[in-house]
Write a structure and sequence with these properties.
- With 500 residues, this protein is α+β, with helices and mostly antiparallel strands.
- The chain is 58% helix and 10% strand.
- The chain contains 10 helices and 4 strands.
- Strands 1-2-3-4 form a 4-stranded antiparallel β-sheet.
- α5 runs antiparallel to α10.
- The protein is elongated, with a radius of gyration of 39 Å.
- The protein starts with 6 loop residues before the first helix and ends in a 21-residue tail after the last helix.
């Protein structure tokens, strides 16, 4: 490091100023460093990482379509309202803004690590006025006199990074940048899935409300018919009481679904981070009828498509690089320092040739005894590595589980929808028969109204199943990565080989 030339150095005995070969000094320092290094604790076996290539679904989990979701998977629903909501959410959502600031912080840390090593140059200038003691080290005329000293120095250092410590620190910082970028993609994936699910639940609630309104009208018509027959003396009061209870139940269900729709609307507004007027133009639309897709095999492809797995993998890589840096700290650091400047006791002579000074030589930083600080730090990094590997292994288990559960749920819902369709068809046939008998004069109007109410009740059940199917399909898309493709930032420097 740079240092000014003092008067003490000028009066040192000549034998202390003897010249040595710079190469011999470097060799001596290097040898001393190797001999005097602090002892490094032996490497411990790391936790094994799961092999994602062998991760597969059960052979019984199959869907009608085979494939991976696209990047903008929501566009396949052909819903302009949903597309507009996605654009707004991915641009303005607070959760993405938070993730973006974390990427910026990781980039700043990376630039800081890049600036630590290599060649550094600085300029220093100082001026001071000092009185030297008359009874101190320096005799008269210096002792007892006052001098003005001015110094201008241009200094430089170069860190050779013999053991790759700085390269490992840069690689660790770069791994964190890539992990933060994957976290941002994960936030996008989670947000887009939440927006789509909330939007379709809202549309499902609106469809249920429209169907319940028809059911309420049918129940009210049944009540009017019961009152008419009671007035004619051909029905008992119990029929009216049953009709009143059925009408009240339909009205209660409508109120409950309306409350659900209001809650879902506010949830969607919160996801967008929007104001009160953001969803004013949102209108009901028919629920889409699309077939879900599930890839025939997962394997390593799931790693490339799931940002949370990428983030976990990059954090494992960053922890390995931090171990490399912690191990390199046990070895001596040898830097080359050079200083050129002007030093004078008189400001008028500062820039004269006789005032020039220079210094060049190696510097050794040798860890010998530090109360176990280096050993503790290395142990901490090794434990952190094991924790990151454990998180990565658990993330793989969770990813395969989420895909499998969503696939199984979709299979089950498909079977339920098939059974529900058969029930609806049977009720429609009963309604058609009741209408034919009414036209033939061999049935009452109440029979037709009851059959209509039954059909509407089954339609309500079918709409609920369709809403569950859409929500589960989106959960499967999210579990499959939502169209994400891994594209990490390239490392500016080649990282040293990892040491476990």
């Amino acid at each position: 490091m740079s240092s000014s030339v003092s008067l003490k150095k000028k009066f040192m005995p000549r034998f202390l100023a003897s010249r040595f070969s710079l190469g011999s000094v470097c060799a001596a320092l290097f040898t001393a460093g190797l001999i005097g290094c602090a002892p490094m604790p032996p490497a411990q076996e790391a936790l094994p990482q799961r092999d994602l290539a062998s991760a597969q679904l059960s052979s019984s989990i199959k869907l009608a379509r085979d494939g991976w979701p696209d990047a903008q998977w929501w566009s396949s629903y052909n819903d302009a309202q949903l597309n507009a909501l996605m654009t707004q959410a991915l641009h303005d959502a607070p959760s993405l803004q938070t993730a973006a600031t974390r990427i910026g912080a990781a980039h700043a840390a990376l630039q800081e690590q890049k600036a630590v090593g290599g060649f550094n140059v600085d300029l220093k200038a100082s001026a001071n006025r000092q009185r030297y003691s008359a009874t101190g080290l320096f005799p008269a005329p210096i002792g007892g006199s006052i001098y003005n000293e001015a110094t201008v120095q241009l200094g430089g250092t170069y860190d050779f990074d013999w053991w790759g410590q700085h390269r490992a620190q840069i690689a660790a910082a770069l791994g964190e940048v890539n992990a933060r970028q994957a976290d941002y993609a994960q936030a996008e994936r989670s947000l887009s899935a939440a927006v789509a699910q909330s939007y379709f639940w809202l549309q499902d609630d609106w469809a249920l409300l429209a169907n319940l309104q028809q059911l309420t009208d049918a129940r009210r018509a049944l009540l009017d018919d019961a009152k008419r027959r009671i007035a004619q003396g051909v029905a008992s009061i119990n029929i009216q009481r049953h009709a009143e209870a059925a009408l009240a139940e339909a009205q209660r269900q409508s109120a409950d679904v309306q409350a659900q729709a209001d809650r879902e609307r506010e949830a969607l507004r919160a996801l967008l981070g929007a104001d009160n007027n953001a969803l004013a133009t949102l209108t009901p639309r028919p629920l889409p009828d699309t077939a879900a897709a599930l890839p025939s095999s997962l394997g390593i492809e799931l790693l490339a498509r799931r940002p949370d797995l990428q983030a976990a993998r990059w954090r494992v890589q960053a922890s390995l690089s931090r171990i490399d840096a912690a191990q390199a700290a046990f070895y001596p650091s040898i830097n080359l320092t050079a200083l050129f400047g002007q030093d004078s006791l008189s400001l008028g002579n500062l820039m004269k040739a006789g005032s020039r000074t220079f210094f060049i030589g190696p510097a050794l930083d040798l860890p010998i005894f530090d109360s176990g600080r280096l050993q503790a730090h290395l142990g901490s990094e090794r434990n952190s590595r094991d924790a990151m590997i454990a998180d990565y292994n658990q993330a793989i288990v969770n990813a395969v589980r989420e895909v499998a559960q969503a696939g199984v749920s979709l299979q089950g819902l498909a079977r339920e929808q098939e059974q529900q369709s058969q029930i609806t068809q049977a009720d429609l046939a009963l309604l058609d028969g009741a209408q034919q008998r009414l036209r033939a004069g061999i049935a009452e109007r109440a029979d037709v109204l009851n059959a209509q109410a039954q059909v509407l009740q089954e339609k309500d059940a079918a709409l609920q199943l369709q809403g569950q199917q859409l929500s589960t399909e989106i959960a499967l898309i999210k579990a499959l990565g939502g169209g994400y493709r891994h594209a990490p930032e390239s490392a500016p420097l080649s990282a040293p080989p990892s040491k476990l």
